[in-house]
């Protein structure tokens, strides 16, 4: 995401190394993926409430442009399609796209 969409780097300027595979990038990537695969999946039936703290953090403290949540969703879909081409069927693509869009909407909730 930081390479293809360089405007997203503005939120991480305090990191010394933003290159792909660097320690801070890998650590934050793991945090994001864990947030999606653990937190969001556990709270799938009420994402707005379940991700409220993250929404507030990103809206009020970090001031992340909510458009970046859609960019991240797209990047995750591309990575999944590349890493698992045989398993990333059209049905899986639709399901993941729908889930990630719901996560992005929930993270954007406090911007409204």
Automatic annotation (TrEMBL):
Keywords: Heme, Iron, Metal-binding, Oxygen transport, Transport
Domain named Globin: residues: 1-112
Entry protein name: Hemoglobin subunit alpha-1
Membrane-crossing segments per the record: none
Keyword ATP-binding tagged: no
Gene Ontology molecular function, alphabetical: haptoglobin binding; heme binding; metal ion binding; organic acid binding; oxygen binding; oxygen carrier activity; peroxidase activity
Pfam assignment, any one: Globin
Nucleotide-binding as UniProt keyword: no
GO biological process: hydrogen peroxide catabolic process
A GO term from the CC aspect: haptoglobin-hemoglobin complex
InterPro entries named in the record: Globin, Globin-like_sf, Globin/Proto, Hemoglobin_a-typ, Hemoglobin_oxygen_transport
Entry similarity comment: Belongs to the globin family.
Alphabetical list of SUPFAM superfamilies matching this protein: Globin-like (SSF46458)
Domain of life, source organism: Eukaryota
